[in-house]
Amino acid sequence: MYYRPDEKAACGDVIPFYKDGTWYLFYLKDFRDIEHCGEGVPWNLVTTQDLVHYTEHGEMLPRGTKDEQDLYVFTGSCIEANGRYYIFYTGHNHLLPKKERVLLAVSDDLYHWRKCPDFVLDAPDWAATQDFRDPFVYENPDGKGWCMLTTTLYTGRDGLPVSANLIAYSDDLLHWRFADTPFYAPGTFASPPECADLFRMGDWWYLLFSEYSDRGVTSYRMSKSPNGPWITPIENSLDCALHYAAKTASDGSRRILFGWNRTKAGNSDTGDYQWGGSIVPHELFQNADGTLRIGCPAEIAAQFSAPAAPAEAAPARGCSEKLPDGWRIGSADGKSTRLLGTLPARCRIELDFSAESRNGEFGLLLRTETGTDGYALRFEPRFSRLVFWDNRLYHFEGERYIPIAPDEKHHLTVIIEGSVLEVYIDNAVAQSSRMYDHTGTGWGLFATNNTVDFTGIRLYLPEE
């Protein structure tokens, strides 16, 4: 369901394109095996009609040699124009004087591509040839022709590096002229804002990019104009650091965000984060004030539609009280837990919760045997956040902003697919995580220094 080429290789950045009922997901394939597969990454293609079942079509843009610019075929964009399809992509080769340049490939059917060796776009003289990548091409909303956003660094007037998105213009997609000033350069990042994406929903325009100098997340800005000035919402990230390089596509009525859920080295919770992983789609929704919400696509939730048989509640610690449709867990002081039975390797959990106060923490226990081991989805209302917690390592990752007021009801959706954990709160906030080491078979609820009502608790399994 969350696509990955095989157990060893991984999906890097996804370049989505929608056409006639099909999502075309070009992705950077990381073989993770230089010894046997050689250096560099190509673009591969998978297609899906339902965001659940994928067809792999193999290599679309092959790697170049060590003497060619596109040893690594890095991120770009796919558009339709003039009766054909165009891919503008990054040719990356650390062995050449100009490490990164923008290159072009064309196709008549989205499945057979030919590179255009005569097309090479360099960074303007004042930008860095070592960081010039991720072309995003779109029709000029201000008139005829096309625009291209790219990622770069340049030296500011103070002599210090500035990370930015540049903009270039073209009338024919072959000849490009850069603006004399950056498209977006807020001066807040030490690293370039990667994988830019620009789109409109209603009256608002959204600029997306991924940056690893702060939180390592995909962020967004919003404006009533496609050229800014840009507003930074209070919560401007679209997931945590485990869901990166996300870009969007629309079928005309909905917009889907495609990123990758990071793997960890050695398939271990203590392993280093790796580049690439499994493709995970989120759906974007728009609030009345223009800010974005993130939810689970209905097609993915529908894969888990068989209700699990009610389980006898397992042993509890501390305070717990049975409610007509759930449990009241916790007290003003101390920790309380209640286990709820067996947790399958693939499942969906749905529940509502409301907390009595902003004290302590509470949430869901996963892959646990005793309630003190395994993992926890831990809401910390005093910090207005959700974290993914490892009960063995006493370590959290994947922090997400979520304000929780006393007695305010929220809805939680959890999707578990092997090691992949996807969490959605109120169809508004998303958090991606990985679960490797703990193999406990149970799940449950907990609350510390707070009393929480967990209601509408349902566990769903895949339909056989």
The gist of it:
By secondary structure, the protein is an all-beta fold. Helix content is 2%, strand content 56%.
Write the CATH homologous superfamily of the largest domain.
Glycosyl hydrolase domain, family 43
Instruction: Name the average pLDDT.
Output: 94
Count of spatially separate domains: 2
Our measurement of the CA-to-CA distance between the termini, rounded to an integer number of angstroms, reads 15 Å
CATH topology of the largest domain, what is it called?
A: Tachylectin-2, Chain A
Question: Low-confidence stretches at least 5 residues in length (pLDDT < 50)?
Answer: none
Number of helices: 2
* Coarse structural class: mainly beta
Tell me what you see in this structure:
The chain has 464 residues and is mostly beta strands. It has two domains: 10-301, Glycosyl hydrolase domain, family 43 (Tachylectin-2, Chain A); 306-461, Sandwich (Jelly Rolls), CATH 2.60.120.560. It is 2% helix and 56% strand. It has two helices and 32 strands. The protein has helices at 34-37, 298-301; strands at residues 10-19, 22-30, 43-48, 55-61, 72-81, 84-92, 100-107, 113-115, 127-139, 146-155, 161-170, 177-178, 194-201, 204-211, 217-223, 243-250, 255-264, 273-286, 292-295, 306-307, 316-317, 320-323, 326-342, 346-355, 361-368, 375-380, 385-390, 395-401, 410-417, 420-425, 429-434, 442-461. The strands form six sheets. Strands 20, 21, 22, 23, 24, 25, 26, 27, 28, 29, 30, 31 and 32 form a 13-stranded antiparallel beta sheet that branches. A four-stranded antiparallel beta sheet has the order 1-2-3-4, with no helix packed on it. Strand 6 (84-92) and strand 7 form a beta hairpin. The longest helix has 4 residues, at 34-37. The protein is globular, with a radius of gyration of 23 Å. The mean pLDDT is 94.
